[in-house]
Amino acid sequence: MYKRQDYVRLIEKNVGRIQRMISQLLQFREIESQKMTLNRQPGDLIRFIDSIFSLFEFYASKKGIETDFSSRYESFYTSFDHDVIEKIFTNLFSNAIKYTSENGYVGVKIGRAPRERWPKGAVPAADTEYLSFTVTNTGAEIPEDKKDIIFESFNRLSARRPEFESSTGLGLAIVRELVGNLAGSITLHSGNSKVAFTVVLPFSRSAEKTNSAAESYDYTVSEIDNLLKESDAADRNDRRVRKAYDIVVIEDDPDLRSYLERRLSEYYNVYTADDGREGIAKVEKIYPQMVITDLMMPEADGFDVCRSLRSNIKTSHIPVIMLSGQGKDADNKIKALECGASVFIDKPFDMDYLLGQVANLIKTQNELKQRYSRKYIAEPSKITISSVDEELLKKAMNYIERNIDNNDYDVESFVSDMAIGRTLLYQKLNDITGMSIKEFIMDIRLKRAAQLLRESDLTISEISIMTGFANPKYFSICFKRHFELTPSEFKKKA
Length: 494
What we know:
Helix content is 49%, strand content 17%. By secondary structure, the chain is of the alpha/beta class.
């Protein structure tokens, strides 16, 4: 049954949806009626598109999406309609990220378009180059018989299912019309679990570097806001049906194992193993938030389980509850704690007590994450490191701080410095801090920026450069998302 606040949220969502639809309809009809006039202004086309893409990287990192921007041209000075180009690529980037699942990939590649890729009827000119812009994302492939439909008004690919559904989507229809107005073409390629849109456009190359017009990115920022709202709503819906935590139960007694699985499954996703060796393998594969293990077991006992998990960087942070019918032997309790057990419980035990211990350990893990969440304002170098797992964070923060002003210091550079596999590093950081690799790097940069805003008289533009943000606009957007204040507002409160 809906509560009043649910109805309010539903109304707000639909009002926002209708407003966006009306705005898009007006844009679409203006383009269709050929009333749109181009306002070409000089600028660096590559820098402009890169700046737009960089604004989407914040949202991409929120979903754990890997991004890449590559261009054959370091710069390309020409005259172009900034508003039209912004709308084309904002819609393409938004579409790609929207339909890419967590831990997927979105890439942009810019190059010279070969003659066979030029739009039909294109006439070569001495001062004109045809550039190719390919936006690729991992995700559900688009069926061959649906490829033409995707560019039609009110049709889109479902973000939840690999099929088409009626919607208010006009993004790709707008892109096609705008590209057509620029005498260009757009094609769709789909296969190998990837979708790629390639836009080919003609541009007259300017011989000299010129100053670009002021860049506002209002349209782009609005689209990112819509994406974030949709994501938050989806997350809320997912939480209603999906259990948040995984637990591995290692117990050789089939009756007790079945009982533990049944009771714990009321609150958690439960996986079981009937001996220590199988349990260790299952933990390394599932990567759970909790392990419950018996002490006396064949193949490998509870002590062996704890030692193995604690010596493996992938599993060293996972809390372990040890159960034993020999708990009255104090030596066993001491040895269990020395091996890395978080809690030791004697058999027979009260199930509600065990459930309470599980909940308490998960709460403690979440509090650790909160220490490093983006709401935590502190100087990175002054955060106290105490546990073994947090030594990893200390090392990570040191590398980022050494490169804090280097805009080129990215995920790949960080992974290389840490000398840990990318997947493993992502898992560790996510479990300890609740952040992806890209979010973690962003987190440290923004904490340093907050410190500089509090303690220095540097301008916001200077601070953005000193903390690795080439684009002050992007810096301001990221800072506000992080601290819920603009840099100016934060400085006034400091």
